[in-house]
Amino acid sequence: MSSPTLSIIIPTHNRPQLLPLAVQSALNQTFDDFEVIVVDDASTDFAPLPNDRRLRVIHLATSRGGAGARNVGTEAARGRWVTYLDDDDRLLPHMVATSLDALNQATLPPPVGVISGIEVIDANGQRLDQRIPPAARPRGCHFALEDLEPGKSYNTKQTLVVEREVIRGIGGWDEAFRSRVHSELFLRLNLVCSIIGIPVVTYQLYKHGGNQVSKDPFLRQRSFEQLIQKHRAAFEAHPKMFAKFVCDHAWMSYQQGQTKAALVNWWRAMKLSPGYTLSRFANSLQ
């Protein structure tokens, strides 16, 4: 395969039980002109994978983290378009076809990326939640900081399909971040690339009991502060959504037993948008 239309990039680290399911979901796409690139981020335990001409595996001798593994996959990709699949999640069979159809019908000036819906599932395959993205964020917006339409969610960034050269053009994924890598990428991406959202679920996010970067309290706190510092001007230009972002972080900190961090960030949010923060705090108490 010399130049497929799209490359599916799967970064992985020590997930031998889950990785084969992610890879198989990528190989099961109804669209047939694609490749799958697994980037093994220096795992000590790696699962056997299918012998499939569409599949390539790159083993890193030294860990570069999730952002670094994504960058390796991006550089190795042969497709015009790229998408990224976490090694503990799964694509639905129509994901690639649906995304490329939406891009072909896009009316916004290029470059354009597309995101779609996510369903959150548990270990038994039961749906816990469904998230549908906003319809469009034109080039020049600050993704996740613009006011959000009712019933929509910004938390579908894992479904991104975009041109490989656009990712390379913004410098790829920031390897200084070990958590919140999607949030950081999108704040740079949306400045130069319009993002359209389609109300179709294409991705399954798997909630399981294993290790997840998003559950690491230390990494979450560090990356939260990193994100604000790097994109402070964008956050300060959207005080209400900045307050929402801080409130969300405060609530997660509280749930993870980080009471001090929760209180500090509730107070930070109060200074940004008192009315919004008080209503959020009251709802949390209920």
Question: What does this entry look like structurally?
Answer:
This protein has 286 residues and is α/β, with parallel strands linked by helices. Helix content is 39%, strand content 20%. The chain folds into two domains: 6-206, Spore Coat Polysaccharide Biosynthesis Protein SpsA, Chain A (Alpha-Beta Complex), CATH 3.90.550.10; 216-285, Serine Threonine Protein Phosphatase 5, Tetratricopeptide repeat, CATH 1.25.40. It contains ten helices and ten strands. Strands 3-2-1-4-9 form a five-stranded mixed sheet. Strands 5, 6, 7, 8 and 10 form a five-stranded mixed sheet that branches.
**How many helices in DSSP terms?**
10
Q: Please identify the structural class as seen in this structure.
A: alpha/beta
Uncertain runs: none
**Percentage beta strand:** 15-25%
The main β sheet shows up as: 5 strands, mixed
CA-to-CA gap between the ends?
56 Å
Q: Output the CATH homologous superfamily of the largest domain.
A: Spore Coat Polysaccharide Biosynthesis Protein SpsA, Chain A
Overall pLDDT score: 94
Number of strands: 10
CATH topology-level name of the largest domain:
Spore Coat Polysaccharide Biosynthesis Protein SpsA, Chain A
CATH architecture type of the largest domain: Alpha-Beta Complex
Which radius of gyration do the C-alpha atoms yield? 19 Å
Share in helix:
25-40%
Lateral strand order in the biggest sheet: 3-2-1-4-9
> What number of domains?
2
Rough outline: globular
CATH class of the largest domain: Alpha Beta
SSE string, helix = H, strand = E? EHEEHEEHEEEEHHEHHHHH
